[in-house]
Structure formats: C-alpha cells, structure tokens
C-alpha cells in the first residue's frame, strides 16, 4: 500500500522538479508571453498539488495553501510587482500560522538566536538596500513578514535541514531581488541565484512539512 501511494503521488514532485529546473533556463526567452508565466508558476503549483494529496489534516491543507499562493505570486509578479508581493505576503502569513501551530518542544539558545536574527536582520538588510527607492517602505515591511516566516520555520518542530533551510533560502532569494533592483549586486550574480534559491527553498519546505505530517514526528 505505501509503495502504491508513492507511485501515485511522486509524479507531482517529478513534474514540479521538471518545471522548476527547466524554467530557469527558459526564463530569459525574449518572446515570453502567457506560456512562460504559466511555466514559472508550474514548479510551485505542482508542489501545491503534491501537498494537497499527501498532506494530512488541517496542517496539510495549510501547506497546500502556502504553495498555491506562492504559485499565484510567481505568475502575478510578471504582471504587477505589488500584487505578486501581496500574494507572497499572504502565503507567508499562512506559513507563520502553520509553524506556530507546530512549535518545537525544546528550543535551544542558539536556535532562538538564529530565529531572532532572521526576524530582525531580514527587514534591516532589505531596507538598507532599497532606501530611498520608491516603495522602499513596502519592501521593508514585506521583508519583515518574510523574516518572521523564516524565524517561525526555524523554531518549529519541522526539520531545520529541510524546512528551516528552505525558509532561509527563500529569505536570501528575496534579498537577491532587492539587491538586483537597487544595483547593490550585479545582475550577472543575482540572475543566477534568485530562482534556484527560491524554487529550491519552496521544494524543501513542501517536502519537509508533508513528510513530517505523514510520519507524525520530527
């Protein structure tokens, strides 16, 4: 029975990987268009389907919603940066709720310190890069939400080497976007880092949460 379930649901992960990896090489296609936007959203979209099928209970529904909002944000960013950012922010808020519902039994001092650093440094670094650009305050507030998501993930019962690291990768990807927009780092650097960090982070988060929920333990 478990083997049959694996055969049934693993294709969603394989399709996600196929879409996520191939999009990286197709993202600079000059003709672009709607097909490229859908291709972009497919990587995390398939993770949402995977989470919906394989997740358990209310928490399983929450991680599916997080991934669905991420996929919608991927597409919306190509049309309107603020709308896309709002969808991602909503997804982060749902993720924070998920992680707070699943606290780690015992959080060490170093883990608390890491969580506090993610919470405080993420908006501080982002704000320092985008100020005084237009909408710098919005970017800073959004980064505070991202930092809170990563801090909650790091101190949750979900495995840090999957969900925690995935959340940190998401943070770094967003900081790379701000570094690109503010010309803090050259496009040659950020263009190679943003998508792999983002998609890889989402993949680790989805798989880490779902596997933990199915095992019923850390």
UniProtKB/TrEMBL annotation:
Please state the span of the N-terminal signal peptide per the UniProt entry.
none
InterPro entries recorded for this chain? TMEM86B-like
Q: Which Pfam families match?
A: YhhN
- Its primary localisation, in coarse terms, equals membrane
Give any Gene Ontology cellular component: membrane
**Which key words are in the record?**
Membrane, Transmembrane, Transmembrane helix
Q: Which residues form a coiled coil?
A: none
Task: Indicate where this protein resides in the cell.
Answer: Membrane
Annotated GO molecular function terms are: hydrolase activity
**Can you tell me where the transmembrane regions are?**
12-27, 33-53, 60-77, 83-100, 112-130, 136-154, 161-180, 192-213
Q: Membrane topology type, per the record?
A: Multi-pass membrane protein
Q: Which family does it belong to?
A: Belongs to the TMEM86 family.
| This protein's name | Lysoplasmalogenase
The record lists the organism as Erythrobacter mangrovi
Q: What is the lineage of its organism?
A: Bacteria, Pseudomonadati, Pseudomonadota, Alphaproteobacteria, Sphingomonadales
């Amino acid at each position: 029975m478990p083997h049959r379930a694996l055969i049934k649901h693993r294709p969603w992960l394989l399709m996600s990987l196929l879409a996520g990896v191939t999009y990286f090489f197709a993202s600079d296609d000059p003709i672009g268009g709607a097909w490229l936007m859908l291709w972009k959203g497919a990587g995390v979209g398939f993770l949402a389907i995977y989470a919906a099928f394989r997740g358990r209970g209310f928490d399983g529904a929450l991680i599916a919603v997080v991934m669905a909002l991420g996929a919608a944000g991927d597409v919306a960013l190509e049309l309107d940066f603020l709308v896309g950012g709002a969808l991602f922010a909503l997804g982060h808020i749902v993720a924070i709720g998920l992680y707070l519902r699943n606290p780690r039994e015992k959080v060490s001092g170093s883990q608390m310190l890491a969580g506090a650093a993610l919470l405080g440094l993420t908006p501080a670094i982002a704000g320092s890069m985008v100020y005084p650009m237009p909408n710098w305050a919005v970017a800073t507030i959004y980064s505070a939400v991202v930092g809170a998501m990563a801090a909650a993930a790091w101190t949750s019962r979900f495995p840090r080497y999957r969900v925690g690291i995935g959340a940190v990768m998401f943070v770094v990807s967003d900081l790379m976007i701000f570094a690109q927009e503010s010309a803090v780092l050259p496009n040659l650097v950020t263009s190679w880092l943003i998508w792999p960090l983002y998609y890889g982070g989402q993949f680790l988060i989805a798989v880490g949460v779902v596997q933990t929920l199915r095992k019923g333990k850390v």
